[in-house]
Design brief:
alpha/beta, 9 helices, 8 strands, 47% helix, globular, binds BIS(adenosine)-5'-pentaphosphate
Length: 208
């Protein structure tokens, strides 16, 4: 029996930070829709070109594009024993599509985990985030700084700031979350799948 987890929370809540450790502890892959999109952007695929303007503005990429991309990833053999899904679903249509996709394989989600932080905390975290271009490790200039300012502790890779790391895009992403993603909290609560964690604790305490 695997463990199928969905992570919910504001941009900057710490989904990516927690998902890596959680996936390792559960021995399942971490599947992040944002990371999948960024891989397509780096490789300049047709899907990446289609998604680029949405991502840079902080808008959601259309459901059919996103759902197709995630469904393809979940169909790979390493997800047969479970997964930690980070950033998907983000709309009710995506949640329904995920439910149908899993039901068609005779499986279902085990838990939807909401990492709860205020908008103020989310903005402070987004403002200082740096990501490793090679291994995807996440740092923060104040809260979890790398030992060397411009290199990843884990692999020595170059640290960079994502293309959606502008104050305008940050504010817009919070607004998009409230309008389009927040309804999922009630959706999963009504399904009896929601668990909440206070995301304003230290990284280790949130993980525990
Ligand atoms: P995506 O990459 O999914 O971004 P997001 O959900 O907005 O979330 P973030 O990655 O910004 O934040 P996070 O919660 O993972 O926080 P993190 O761990 O990095 O999506 C990007 C874009 O892709 C979207 O805007 C959209 O265009 C598109 N997209 C993606 N999925 C889509 C979908 N399903 N449908 C349509 N479009 C989609 O942490 C943030 C910072 O805080 C880090 O610096 C970290 O070090 C620090 N930190 C974390 N936890 C703590 C803590 N406990 N204490 C102190 N600091 C902490």
């Amino acid at each position: 029996m695997g463990c199928r987890v969905v992570l919910l929370g504001l941009p900057g809540a710490g989904k990516g930070t927690q998902a890596e450790q959680l996936a390792a502890a559960l021995h399942v892959p971490h599947v992040a829709s944002g990371d999948l999109f960024r891989e397509h952007l780096d490789k300049r695929t047709a899907l990446g070109c289609q998604a680029q303007a949405y991502i840079e503005r902080g808008d959601l990429v259309p459901d059919e594009v996103t759902t197709g991309m995630v469904a393809e990833r979940l169909a790979r053999p390493d997800c047969a024993g479970g997964f930690v899904l980070d950033g998907f679903p983000r709309t009710l249509a995506q949640a329904v599509a995920l439910e149908q996709l899993l039901a068609s394989a005779g499986i279902a989600l085990d838990v939807a985990l909401l990492i709860r932080v205020s908008e103020q905390v989310a903005l402070a975290r987004l403002a200082g985030r740096w990501t490793c271009r090679r291994c995807g490790a996440i740092y923060h200039t104040l809260f979890s700084p790398p030992r060397q300012a411009d290199a990843c502790d884990a692999c020595g890779g170059e640290l960079y700031q994502r293309p959606d790391e502008t104050p305008e895009a940050h504010h817009h992403r919070l607004q998009v979350y409230q309008e389009q993603t927040r309804p999922l909290v009630d959706y999963y609560r009504q399904a009896g799948l929601l668990t909440e964690v206070d995301g304003e604790q230290s990284i280790d305490d949130v993980q525990a």
